[in-house]
Structure formats: C-alpha cells, structure tokens
Specification:
heterodimer; A: 206 residues; 5% strand; B: 352 residues; mainly alpha
Chain lengths: 206, 352
C-alpha cells in the first residue's frame, strides 16, 4: 500500500513552504501599502494608523496563521501552499490529521526540525518516505495527490511580484510624503535631545 | 578530622548505587542512539529561552533605578530646573519639540489599548502553553528513549515522540502544581518575616535574618526542583500519575540522599567541563577572526572572502555549541534515569 504512494520531494515542498510564507506576509505588505496611502501629511494623523499596523504585524497576523494553518491541515489536508502545489499531509495510514495533531506537527515538532539551522528539513534526502524530522515526530507523510508544481511556481512568482510591488510602492509613497518625513525626523531629533537625564547645573562651578 | 580523601571514601561507601556503572552506561546510551540528541536539542532550546527572559528583567530594573535616581537628584537640587520645565524650554528651542511626543501619545485611542492588551495577553498565553508543552513532551520522550535503550531496544523518533505526547500533560502538572503550592506556602511564611524585618533592616540581626530567609527559600526551591526532576523520571518509567510521581521523587531523594547528591556533583562537574570546552572553541575562532580583520585592513578586497568565511565560522560555532549542549543534556538525563533504574533493581525482592 505504502509503496504506491508518491511522496513529495524537497523541491516541491520548498515551493509550498515559500507560498505559505508569502501568504503570511501578504497581509503585512497590504497593510503597509494602505498605511502609506492613508498616511496624511502630519504625524498626528499617521501615528494611530502606524500603531495599528505594528499590532497587526507583530500579533494579529501571527495569531491568525497560528490557528488557521492547523485548521486547514485538519479539514483539507494541507496549508494553502501545500494545497496549491497538489500536496497533502496525512497520517501514515492515509487518514487526515486531527486539529490537535496538526497543531503538534506545525508548532511543536517543527521546532525540532528548525533546530541546528533546519537540519531536520534536509532529512527528506535520507528517508525512504521523504520524511522530515517533524514528519517522523508526528507520524505523518506528505503525499503528491496531483502534481501541480508548475501552478505552485507561478503562484509563488505572482505572490512575490505582488508583495514587491506593494512594498516598493509603499516605500516610494512614504519617501514622497515630505511633510510627514520632516515631522518624523523632528520627532526623532526631539527623542535624541529629550532630557531623560537632564543636565544638572553644577552649583560649585556657577 | 577527616581528610578530603577520607570524606570521599566515606561518601562512596555510603552510596547504594554504582556510580561507575551509571556513568559508563549513560555514556554508551548517549552515543548509541543519536535520535536522543533531537530531544536534547529541543530541551536546550526551551531552557535557554528562560535564561534570556531573566536577563531582560535585570536591565529593566536597572534603567528604572537610574531614572528615578536622576529625577530625585533633580528635585533635591535648588539650581536644577524640573523636567517639565526642561521639556517646555526644549520645545521652544526646537519648534514642534518634546511636547509633541506627549501629544502624540495622547492620540492613542482606548480601543487600541484594549485590543493591544487582549492580543498581547493571548500571544503570551499561547507562547507559555507552547513552551510548557514542548519541554514536557521532549523530556518524557527522552526519558522513554533512554529507558528503552538501557533495556537494549533502540527506538526511533516516532515511538519516543508518541510516548512523549501521552505523558506530556501529566508532566506539565508535575512541574507546575507542586511549584505553585510550595511557592504560595513559602510566600505566606516569608511575608510576616519580611514585615517583621523592615524596622530591623539596618541592624545586623535584621540582615542576618534576611540572609537566613533567603537561604531557606533557596534550599526549599532546590529540594523541590530535585523532587520534580526525579519524579518526572518515575512518571515515565513506572507510568505514574503526577501525585504518585511527586511522592516517588520525594522518597528517592530522602532514601538515597548521598547517591543523589554525589550524582548531582558529578553532573555539575561534567557540565562545567563542557562549558569550559565550549569556551575553548572560541579561542581558535577569535584568532581566525583577528587574522581576517588584519588581512582586510591591509588589503580591503579581501572582504569578499572574509565575510562568507566569518558567516560560516559563526554558523559552525553556534552549531557546535548547540550540539555539545544537547549531547550533555542527554548524558545528564541518562545518568538520572539509570540511577533510578538501579534503585528499582535494588528494591526488587530477591528470589532465592
């Protein structure tokens, strides 16, 4: 039974992985672009939006993907990247993972794979079922259901292009916003000059 | 009076387990099944994150101290303007100036503060649970792997992980509940003592009592940590609940006190040697780095070679240190597992 399975190799899994990374960053670059669009010309209008962006970047985005990815794996058999490249993550007997199993695979077992600069990922080349360390730790395999490597590559390229466009346009918009830049540079100068530890005049010298 | 040699002879005679056998077997197991190192790596990762957190706390306290201190100096000096006045004056010189920082923070809406509070709390909870689970799972899996290796069965990653998952929740309970109870009780005892101490703080009696309270607190925590550590081994090997494992840990420590103390000393010594060996790794790398810096300063185009070499060296260094720590972790755990198994063997009823 196992011999008939077409286990996914390193290349296609890497494409799926980078699609997931790009999808994770898409929300961030989109928010950054919107921030640049709605920045306004003074720092008072910009600052609240900037705080929301920071909150989204550091917390919300991470939390959403933290819960979303295991959900996708348990329901559809893979994260968005894996599904787009035609891969599914399954138990060795071919069944779908439960939510708990998926959570374990993504956030506990993957820590082992990431240790020592990701040596666990390269175990694909040594294992006959092309399992990484996190696959072995969670008793899972990644199987090619239908080879969509080309579609995956095109999606990855498109995502990279979209994110680069959004990011670069956002940066250009910011660099063109001279009044806001002047406000920010004044603010930074103020922070540099702010009297956190004020100079106490020396009474003896006076 | 006993000489150190006589002391060590007495201690070794007092041991009920065989220290040489423990160390030999731990060494064999550590290098026989290298899959154990994976769990060692995870455990090294989880223990290093705790240490960094502590360091951060120290810095925060320091900065608070300086700030308050400077403010107090300012207030007390009749020649010094107060900070508010300085802020106002700076703003007059610099245009938009320091007042705008205050105004900027006034633009933060309550909705943002509430959302940020909830989001960060959720994030902290997620990280705390993840960290606890990770440590409990890796620890259980490692103990099971060592136990089986000692029985002559080499396990792969999957069976070790499976047992780790089964035991993780009970292991978390074992590491959290007794600690909370003991900390609570100790604080309850310590608070009246501290209140009593405040008026006596500057007198020698007060200082002595404070040192005594601190020492008692430290010994209690150390004792508790040892019970939990040995209890966790019993939990996996004998398939116990956390309560029974805690009792078993206590029983082993009290009954085999000398064995536990001696093995702790030996492990501390080995840990120290590993640290020294890791530090020794820095010397050749530093020499190479110094040579490269000299080379680049005399012939700048060498930078093209120096940068990748530096990256490779740094990566190799981190990998080396990390791997050595993981192996040391596995060895340390193996010694305790084998000690516990020897204890179980000693307590087996002898059939004649």
């Amino acid at each position: 039974m196992n011999d008939q399975k077409n286990y996914a190799g390193f290349g296609i899994r890497a494409v799926a992985f980078f699609i997931d990374v790009c999808l994770g960053l898409l929300g961030v670059t989109l928010t950054f672009y919107l921030l640049a669009l709605t920045a306004g010309t003074n720092i008072f209008a910009f600052f609240p939006n900037f705080l929301w962006f920071t909150l989204y970047f550091f917390v919300v985005n991470g939390l959403v993907f933290f819960f979303l990815n295991p959900y996708l794996i348990s329901i559809f058999g893979g994260t968005a990247g894996k599904l787009l490249t035609g891969l599914t993550i399954e138990n060795e007997d071919g069944t779908h993972l439960t939510y708990k199993q998926a959570l374990f695979r993504e956030y506990v077992a993957k820590i082992a794979s990431n240790a020592l600069f990701g040596v666990g990922y390269f175990w694909i080349f040594k294992n006959e079922k092309k399992q990484t360390w996190h696959d072995m730790l969670s008793d899972t395999v990644v199987v090619v259901q239908s080879n969509k490597a080309a579609l995956g590559l095109i999606t990855l390229l498109l995502l990279v292009l979209i994110e680069l466009t959004l990011g670069v346009t956002g940066i250009i918009k910011f660099s063109e916003n001279k009044p806001l830049l002047a406000d920010i540079s004044t603010l930074f100068k103020d922070i540099g000059n702010s009297p956190v530890i004020p100079n106490v005049p020396n009474p003896i010298a006076n | 009076m006993y000489t150190p040699q006589q002391w060590s002879k007495l201690l070794l005679e007092g041991m009920k387990t065989n220290l040489t056998k423990i160390l030999n077997e731990a060494w064999r197991i550590t290098f026989k099944n290298k899959w154990l190192w994976v769990f060692g790596l995870v455990l090294v990762l989880t223990s290093s994150s705790g240490g960094n957190g502590g360091g951060g706390g120290g810095n925060k306290n320091n900065s608070n101290f300086n700030y308050t201190n400077s403010y107090e100096i300012n207030k007390s000096s009749p020649f010094a303007p107060n900070p508010q006045q300085l802020l106002r004056e700076t703003s007059q010189v610099l245009g938009t100036a320091a007042v705008s920082i205050e105004e900027l923070f006034q633009t933060i809406s309550p909705l943002f503060l509430v959302t940020a509070g909830i989001a960060f709390t959720l994030l902290l909870i997620v990280f705390a649970i993840l960290g606890l689970y990770l440590k409990a799972w890796a620890s259980s899996a490692l103990i099971h792997g060592i136990d089986q290796e000692n029985n002559g069965v080499s396990l792969g990653l999957s069976p070790m992980s499976k047992l780790g998952k089964q035991k993780a929740v009970e292991m978390i309970k074992l590491s959290i509940i007794p600690s909370f109870i003991t900390l609570g009780v100790t604080l309850l005892v310590a608070i009246p003592v501290i209140l009593l101490l405040i008026p006596e703080a500057t007198r020698p009696f007060g200082i002595l009592l404070a040192v005594l309270v601190f020492l008692v607190f430290f010994v209690v925590l150390l004792f508790l940590a040892s019970i939990v550590y040995l209890g966790s081994i019993a939990l996996v090997i004998k398939n116990l609940t956390w309560q029974d494992a805690f009792k078993e840990g206590y029983r082993i420590i009290t009954k085999y006190f000398i064995d536990v103390i001696l093995l702790s000393c030996v492990n501390c010594l080995i840990g120290g040697l590993v640290s020294v060996a890791s530090c020794a790794l820095i010397i050749p790398i530093a020499l190479v780095g110094f040579g490269a810096a000299l080379g680049v300063s005399t012939f700048p185009p060498l930078l093209i070679i120096a940068v990748p070499v530096a990256v490779i060296l740094l990566t190799a260094f981190i990998t080396g240190i990390y791997l050595v720590s993981a192996i040391a972790h596995v060895f340390n755990k193996s010694t305790w597992v084998i000690l516990y198994k020897q204890v179980l063997d000693l307590e087996k009823p002898k059939i004649l």
